[in-house]
Amino acid sequence: QIYKASTTAPVNIAVIKYWGKRDPKLNLPTNSSLSVTLSQSDLRTHTTASCAATYPSQDSLLLNGQDQDVSGARTQACFRELRSLRQKLEKSDPSMPKLSTLPLKIVSENNFPTAAGLASSAAGFAALVRAIANLYELKENETELSRIARQGSGSACRSLFGGYVGWEKGSKEDGSDSVAYQVAPASHWPQMRALILVVSAAKKGVSSTTGMQTTVATSSLFPQRANETVPRRMKEMEKAIQEKDFEAFGNITMMDSNSFHATCLDTYPPIFYLNDVSRAAIKVVEAINVVAGKIIAAYTFDAGPNAVIYYLKENEAEVAGLFKAAIGEKEGWTGIRGDAVLANNG
Ligand code: DP6
Known about the structure:
This protein is α+β, with helices and mostly antiparallel strands. It has eight helices and 15 strands. The strands form four sheets. A five-stranded mixed sheet has the order 1-6-9-7-8. Bound molecules: ligand DP6.
């Protein structure tokens, strides 16, 4: 008999960036972060988790048809935590099938380029954790699952919630208080839109895991960012979201992206995620805001050159329209995807 469960998890794009670990093993961050979860209909990972006594004895993971190494500490941590929760259920109810002892087979498909700085690990681990939790019929809520997904990839903990999502860095050594929480559902501010400019679908040069550890070790700008700038911006950003103040939201989003990339540049050896096309996108956003006389568009960049532009639906023509018109002329932009913000956790 094969036991099976499927799910999808969307990508999230941070407006206050997670960059730096205080504990690389447990994936505990040096600062809190905040993101917007995108709609399931566009960028997402679809995952099926199954288990059976007839499967080969090793757990396996297939991503976009390719066999992945599951022996890594992160995947192992997720499997271990989920299995132990299932074990507890099996102990309390002996009539339950002993799924925790069976080999797992995970099959995932991304509908966007993997590891190109499009938050693929976020959607990937969020979907993996939720699929196995469904397969095991676990009763844990999103907060508890976010603690597990975090160990797979930090940003993944935020993809378990829809809308506007925070990740509290926590202070406990065991990481039990380093979890995601919903700041507001997407329905609170449903006019929010995100435009994704795919500059390059190539795999990123420096992985976030390696990059952030080098930043923590070498950047002199980093302590200021982690200890002062981000804690202040977390409060300002939550307020901007509560008050649906796009000017504040956009301003903090752009400043925080710039601050994150400044610490990358201040890392030794330096890390360059932005390229000329990224910088051209920044210029276009600046021009749009100058013409509007206020901030109606905000850019943000993760660990790669692709731009995400946040704007409100009412400014669709001025923002998305302009980018879509420009894309035909601009060398380097290989694609563009407009998208709404997710309504609910799927
Ligand atoms: C720039 O979550 O990919 O996108 O925890 O090492 O897997 P690991 O890192 P990851 O880092 C994401 C970094 C970022 C900012 C963010 O999403 O907050």
